[in-house]
Amino acid sequence: MSTPNTAKPKKAKTPHARPVDTDQTQAEAAHHDNHHDGAGHGTVKSYVTGFILSVILTAIPFGLTMAHMLPASSLIPVVVAIGVVQILVHLYFFLHMNASSSQVWNNAAFIFTVLIVGILVIGSLWVMYHLNANMMPGMMPVE
């Protein structure tokens, strides 16, 4: 009596061991180990660079505001612009979001989130402006 051709069982994965696959060659296993499943990992240098840029981008608006170097009409756009740059620094250096193929779904989720928040904020401002313009005391009918 012959036994059916069954696949050999694989060993369980441990956190410190490479997965054992009887059909995988040594070169394929080494190639897989070098990629870490496509996840982006930062180096100490990139984290320090991101931290220094974040501190500088925080100190500039703080200094401009505390020293009254600019009038309020030009200070607000400057602070907002520096805030946007700081968001980009955080996304690149700390969240490792870039244009690589492994980040496609993260980038799509981020763009969708920005779109929804933008619609919410712009829509709220539009509704509040029109409510304010249409509910002025002089425009209400007098009985």
Description:
- There is one protein chain.
- With 143 residues, this protein is mainly α.
- The chain has 4 helices and no strands.
- The protein has helices at residues 26-35, 44-66, 72-93, 104-134.
- Helix 2 packs antiparallel against helix 3.
- Our estimate of the beta-strand percent is under 5%
Query: What percent of the residues sit in helical stretches (DSSP H or I)?
Result: 55-70%
Q: Please, how many helices?
A: 4
Cα end-to-end separation = 103 Å
Gross geometry = flat
Class based on secondary structure composition and strand pairing:
mainly alpha
Mind summarizing the main beta sheet?
Answer: none
As a whole number of angstroms, the C-alpha radius of gyration is 28 Å
Q: How many beta-strand elements?
A: 0
Low-confidence stretches: none
Order of helices and strands: HHHH
Mean pLDDT reading: 81
Provide a brief overview of the structure.
Helix content is 60%, strand content 0%. It has helices at residues 26-35, 44-66, 72-93, 104-134.
Helices and strands in order, then pairings?
Layout: H1 26-35, H2 44-66, H3 72-93, H4 104-134
Helix pairs in contact: 2-3
Keywords, please?
mainly alpha, about 140 residues
